[in-house]
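Page 47, continued from p. 46.
Same chain as before, 173 aa.
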Amino acid sequence: MKDKDLLDYSKQVKNQAQRLLKKNRVIETLNKYGEVIITGSYKFDLMYGPDIDLEVITNNPRENSLKALNEFIEARNFQKYEYGDFEAHPREKRPESFIIVLDQVLAGVKWEIEIWFFKQRDPDKIKFEEKLTSLSQEQRKKILELKYQRDQMGRSKHAVSSYEIYRTVLFGE
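Result:
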């Protein structure tokens, strides 16, 4: 895919993401439970796949994640709801916290919204995100190209994470 096409495609995906968040009042709902932080490809205009990453900073991640999950379930705006307790059940490469995953099909595409609940933000993640705010246009194009290649090879975001792609482009790892 050409650079311009990738950039246009990325904008289209972000526009769909914005509509999904607004239509289902996701940010509005989460604001009741803590400070909402938009992260990942949505925040940095690097969207390729249909997934959105959010964080909620709150004094009581477990309690507020369960309340938010209940509210989402009651609203019935999503097809599937998942909950992860990685505090009681730690997993490698996962923060010790709580996650809600909301799934919805929009225009024939399955979207996934991952919402992490934390007491505070990870300082290393904040530093890493600062580097993403100063990407050159060439780096941005390279990231989108690598995401496109991942997709064309049939590899999931779990097999080759966006984080790995970002590190490759930023640091040559």
